[in-house]
Here is the input.
Amino acid sequence: MRCVFLISTLCLGLSAGCATTRDSSAPAGHGNRDRAARYAHAMIGAPYRYGGSTPRGFDCSGLVVYSYAQAGVSGLPHSARMLEKRARTIDVNDLRPGDLLFFRLDGAKSVHVGIVVDDGSFVHAPSSGKRVEQVGFDHAYWGPRLSRAGRIGR
Here is the structure.
């Protein structure tokens, strides 16, 4: 069962993101999302690096861009805010591996993104000095900050 509090915390209106932007279209199907989730999971333990999008270091959106590129989907923007604009809004009850979770930090000023890997957790690159990690939807810090769930592609 999905965490009920996630549904109650969903809202729109985020205004900033991680790193730089680059935008082009990139279709993604169910198989691509599953593969992206597996690639993200394989990066657990990689260091955080602002602007990073390789196993040598990732920021939040860089992990998404890398994971989807490895799964065959290129051209995603290296920006949590732009990824949020690109992703189609979905209900948290419909989450599948590879879907994206967007979090509001510092009020509505910044956005953070993670990749769903199973029915109860996501992988993300949290912040400077930390490493890519897997955490549950009910995580004490991240759970209450969830603002939107989205899906790349169909």
The longest helix spans residues 30-42. Residues 34 and 97 are 5 Å apart (CA to CA).
